[in-house]
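Title: Request for sanity check on CRISPR-associated protein Cas4 prediction

Description:
We are preparing a figure and want to confirm that the structure record we downloaded matches what your pipeline produces today. Could someone re-run it with the sequence below and paste the raw structure tokens into this thread? We only need the token string, no images.
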Amino acid sequence: MEHTSDTVYDGKLLHEISYPGRAQKHTEITLSATYNKIELYGKIDFYDAFHKVIHETKRGNKVEAAHHWQVKFYLWLLQLNGIEDAYAILEYPLLRQTEKVELQPEDVLHLEKSVVEISKLKEQENCPSVINAKICKSCSYYELCYISEE
């Protein structure tokens, strides 16, 4: 699924080509935390612990809100682990663009609400209905929703 998808592989390849020296300077970290009895996990590919910066490379040719929420989730995990004042840099090599992302108090409230809602969905006996959105076809978790549809 996510860690073995073609999308993830393409992203790693783009990162290696665009930022060849980064792997030697930054660390890959896996984080976990508990919020409201909900276990949270995240894997950050490139983290500069000295400067408290997450580097997230995106392979697409457009900036999406989901990219911001992904790194905000990582920043929240860092915060839950006692690492304050971290920030993220979203990098779009194909656009030749970077964006600094910081975690705001209202973002934390949104993330807290979201993980509680997701946890409730996980606890339901039946899965929610398939939404058939265009974005689903490129999702790393496509199989979870559409396994019985094909």
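Thanks, this matches our download. Helices lie at 6-18, 22-25, 65-80, 105-123, 142-146.
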